[in-house]
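Section: Multi-chain targets

For targets with more than one molecule, the full set of components is provided together so that the structure can be written out for the assembly as a whole rather than chain by chain. Components appear in the order listed by the source. The example entry contains three components.
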Amino acid sequence: MAKILAVDDSASMRGMVAFTLRGAGHEVFEAENGELGLDAARATAYDLVLADVNMPVMDGISMVRGLRAMGAYKGVPILMLTTESHTEKKMEGKAAGATGWLVKPFDPEQLLATVKRVLG
Amino acid sequence: MAGRRAVKRQGSNTKAGTASPGAQAEAMVLLPADCRIAAQAALKDQFSAVADAKVVVLNGGEVERVDTAFLQLLMLFRRELDGRGGSLSWGGASDVLTEGACLLGLTQVLDLPAAKLA
Amino acid sequence: MSAVDLTQFHKTFFEESHEGLDAMESALLALDAGSIDTELVHTIFRSAHSIKGGAATFGFADVAAFTHVAESLLEEVRSERRAVDPQLVDMLLRSVDCLRVMLRRSSAGQPVADAESDALRAELLRLVSGEVEAASPPTTDTVSAVSGWKIDFSALPHLLQTGNDPLRLFRELQQLGRLEVVRVFLVEGTPATLADVDPAQCYMGWELHLHAAVARADIDAVFDWLDGDCVLDVSPLPTAEAPAQDTPVQATDTTAAPQADVAAQAVVAGATDTPVQVVRETPAASAETSSIRVDIDKIDGLINMMGELVITQSMLSEIGENFQLSQLAILREGLAQLERNTRELQESVMRIRMLPIGSIFNRFPRLVRDLERKLDKRVKLELHGEHTELDKTVLEKIGDPLVHLVRNAIDHGLESPSRRKAVGKSETGTLKLNAYHEGSNIVVQISDDGAGLNRDAITAKALQNGLIGAGQNLSDAEVADLIFQPGFSTAAHATDLSGRGVGMDVVRRNVRDLGGSVSVRSVSGKGSTFTIALPLTLAIVDGLVTAVGGERYIVPLISIVESLRLTASAVRKVAGGGEVFHFRDAYLPIMRLHRSFACNEAVTEVERGIVVVVEEDGRRVGLLVDDLLGQQQAVVKSLEAHYRRVQGISGATILSDGSVALIVDVGGVVHMGRQSKVA
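Its structure, encoded as tokens over all components, is:
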């Protein structure tokens, strides 16, 4: 069971993600923008970070860059939650150090399958 | 984090001051439970410190998490030992360790026992 | 179907979507004013994007499809491929409206898209250049005839730092079939000595054989996140190997199957328990349980107060353990403290329901903009006191009356630019909305610098409608009051706006339902000010407990002017059976509460009872009760919710002795008095 950080400005998406992952036995911490996400990541070592792309205050791409700059998050999987209409965002996310992405909309099964995939 | 208890040297050759090559006959490294990428810098230092030993015994019985970075470091360490005339042996290898090595095709390179599950 | 019940997130989704639309609207209006602020564009885009993502996730396909087109258009704006012009802003504002309706329908479980939304969507679609429709998922190639795949895979140095791990990839490949590592090697350029190795970099490469008759796409899917992180070459294995792999494929299939099963069980086991309960708790239909967002400070305040209450309670119970008369002073002190704690706690609990009126005020820039265009007027809107807090229920119900007053002010109050110019005013009229606290009331004022009420037109109309008699001399306040009478309208011809079927009488009724009052002050040629006074909170009323027969009635203190005992001679009978008495230079009617509420055994002689003078909307009446029993804060319980609506009663409460008392709706009683007088 992993410690997972879910960062998304949408409370409903965050709620859905957190609820689903908790249901699968994971420990989930929620943050509503990139800045709060970085704060949380500094305080606790997470096994996986899920990051929305478009967020106020600090977007997901900048947060990924910030995470990868921390020694403790070198190899930690970070998944971007993105929409298919933004292939350039995917690439931007990858360049920032994201592991992969989960394409919105996704349902709980897809989320769990992807999380299982990265956590092994 | 792999830290303090990871390096134990056996016998009378424990002093780090014995710098001349080949002075250490045998050295042992206890591998930590979490051997993933964040632990590699510390592990590399430990491996470097014992690279001159004739025989390095790795104890991987407590290893719970591995990744490619770690298995690669083992492979590179093995290569380093070979180059210096030393050898690698195992004082214990957890299933996670043997399974990971098997999956990456490193069982033979690392002289590990065959994985049970693979 | 999903094992996780997503409906539990719908409410949050609707809430945040409406908030997003509000933000989008404000930003669009700011854009319209000529400022091309990239931050505004981002805000608009982000809102649309979130709504689309949520709608698609939670299964509101129509909303998702609509927002998708809007988002594509916004993407063009964001990437500066499209300029912002008034037409675009207009269309996007209409999209905001349309989405509000669609969301409301979604939450009510009604069909969402209609001809209007489809038309608007088509309009947006026409505007978007290039293809918009979501690219259909790549057609999965049919499993080719290949028996397996040769995969040459070597990492680029940074691979591991992306969080991708070949170990994980190989595990995934193993799920597809038997994976054979044919060769593992160090790539060219690997440092020769351990000392030069950067352990965070990847120097490895592999030649793999995957013995599985899977599609190429299945393999690509495993590597889909590694574009640019590795060198990959996938080719079919020579068929010569075919006879050899029949068995292994089957063998791996059987090992893979149980694993998949375990995963599926984990999903089910982890997720079913709770959601099933949730479903049971929620009534079947999409009954609207409203929720409230509370400032964390308010919660902290509550927790603090709760702590103090606990301390007081433990102190009191300690005294109670073995009480001696000498401790009386301490006991009293403790009880006083308890009272203070309770009051503070009560206030804090009530504050939870308080929300800033700004959320209503924010609607108005948009409304004013639309009205300006429609009516060809120029209006400067000023908003003051947006942070003034109001009970949530009051806030929800005051929106429509305020909208009506604002419409009215622009439609009837403010003159056309040419007319304003002619009378020496600036062409742009000013409409001011102001909210502030006054005692235990919230006052909301809507003032305009227009023509003011037209006294002559109003009296003429009232005369025509039979609301007043000929030759009746009315004070300015009485004239102003006429516009709140049912069916009254002075507009020469119904405009599009006043044609919406809401009159000022409805405004007054709605405000009264909230326990408030509305009045108007007007100066000819200078403008009008509508003032709405609302109770701070609906749930608590400071009241005077009165006895009428065997019953207890609570009269809200706020309405009471004075209580007095009258002598029999002070009461005069008037034609039609009414009774009046002289009070501060005016004759006020007497309302016998025992008669209004049909109470038995009540005091019927005025001189033996007490007359409570109450005021509502500037009208005063004297209520005859048996006796005054004291003041009390009453927690209002809705009578409607538990019984039914009763005229003249605004609710019920439970008195300290456990009996039930009814709370007098002063406005309603005054109204009843007038009706009976007319009858």
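Chain B touches chain A through five residues (CB under 8 Å).
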